[in-house]
Amino acid sequence: MAFTEYELVMLDDGEVALQRAGSDEPLVRISFSDSVLEYLDGKHIDVAKSMMDAGIQTVFEINDDRTPASVETGEKRQILH
Q: Does pTM surpass 0.90?
């Protein structure tokens, strides 16, 4: 399986985005209101990183749930004719 690198970037409009490295097309955007930005006092990037990490972890868990049991356990299926 090919390895894809992702990066968090700050967009011109102040949103934080996740995108593939080398791409200019955001896959996910996070926008904070002015009041939240003020409350976080410059720590919104750390919060955005945590939000993205949690989302990526959830995607991995969803994909694990979709994996057939025979693949998870390494069992080989035998076809009997």
A: no
Q: Are 16 and 45 a contacting pair, CB within 8 Å?
A: yes
| Per-residue pLDDT tens over the stretch 10-62 | 999 989 999 999 999 999 999 999 999 999 999 999 999 999 999 989 988 99
Per domain, the residue ranges of the chain are 6-65
Burial class (CB in 10 A: 0-12, 13-18, 19+), 9: middle
